[in-house]
Design goal:
Helices cover 33% and strands 24% of the residues. It is an alpha/beta fold and 530 residues long. The protein has a seven-stranded mixed beta sheet with strand order 9-8-17-18-19-16-20. The chain has a five-stranded parallel beta sheet with strand order 11-2-1-15-21, covered by helices on one side.
Amino acid sequence: MSRIAVIAGAGPAGLTAALELLRRTDCIPLVFESDSQVGGISKTVEYRGNRMDLGGHRFFSKSDWVMDWWQDILPMDPEALSTAPTQLAYQGQTRQFTAMAPPARNRDKVMLLRARLSRIYYRRRFFDYPLKLNTDTIGNLGWLEAGLLGASYAKSSLLPRHPEVTLEDFFVNRFGDRLYRTFFKDYTEKVWGVPCEEISAEWGAQRVKGLSISTALLHAARSVLPGNSDVSQKNVETSLIERFLYPRLGPGQMWEEVANRVLAGGGEIHLEHRVVGLRRIGQRVEAAEVLDLRSGTSRWIECDQFVSTMPIGTLTTQLQPEGCPVADIACGLPHRDFMTAGLVVRKMTPSASRTGAESAGMPPDNWIYIQEPEVKLGRLQIFNNWSPDLVADPATISLGLEYFCAEGDDSWSMPDSRFLSFAASELARIGLIDERDVIDGTVVRVPKAYPAYFGKYARIGELRAFLDGFENVYAVGRNGMHRYNNQDHSMLAAKAAVDCIAENRQDRGAIWSVNTDDDYHEERKEAGSV
């Protein structure tokens, strides 16, 4: 008889686990998702024909398994191969790259090959990101300021901070104090809502692991060498990757296709359902209580395996650790919430583009980091540059204005119409649009979007040890592990969980090692490895 695996959450981790369970085990996955659509933070929100990507999702990975998995679901657009190389430097060897052609009837179900461009907007000027010591940067800063930044970087190189405890330590050691305060401090504190000296250096170690002035300069030098056409880009630091794959209709298209395969394979996906309780016997979960958010009724589902992508604090509380210190840790793990104001505009100001000559003043960027301290706006996406098919009317520009907040604060509680006006006014204040050119807009709120690396985070190891003591419980995904993972990291954690189930292994080390080991990011893997 088939076993039952209850999966809490239908984001990248939950759906990857569901499909892999069907492919590799006798478990039937029952997926319960509180949202009305799949994808988690990787979903695509549609509003009047315009599609919004929440946070911006580049489809690339240093893992062959992930890249092949994505290509199996959504093959590369054959037209992209006319501009892509066919010989790739891959796993240290040169070999043919052959994309899987989609069926003629499904030509929309493909991945596009996109160029990456993101810049910093500061003092009403654009700076390359990663920062480059070129004439544009020096011209924007002025020779005096450039010299002071260089001297500050030299000082930090000679006298680095030890020990490296806080995020401020991390940034100063890699960029110098003056550059950190100029380009990183304000934006980072917009994201987290607390000073950088209160955030663990571990966040920097996971998000910008090897990035520094020296690595940026080395990358710039390599980019002008002949033969630099490696689409896999395995030896390129994550923050420096310049090309990526992207679903034609946004990231949610990937996860909608995965959901279809789960259903076709005999799995179940229940939207607007939330796991609200767990029944355990000793160190084993026997059943999950599931609440139907539409009817308000709940039921118990017996299970053989339980895979959780819910916030790790919620999972811990549901496991009822009475008299155990992890209960206090579970309540003290903070999150940062997220809002996007989706604006459709007729045009942007000429100063918004690189030269003023782009169509309707539209910048060429995928996204822009807003470093201007007088506005709350954190980041600006230009959806036209992710995929033209995200925009209903190609004569308009579709923008995503990203704000970082706390659930229930003034921004979160603001009525949609007022928040849209506020967001448009901020973009106009920094000279990127004229408010009169705004045509339409919508607001999307995402609770618990970013696990925070402060509060009780320093004791996360105790929580992990508690959870690893359960025979059939697997915590995966961004919130499930309280780790600021990319979607490929979440997929790899889900794969590692299924490995444990398929091979009847209790050691959860492979799950927790994803996105912590430098080797994962920076070293070539042997054939057949992740």
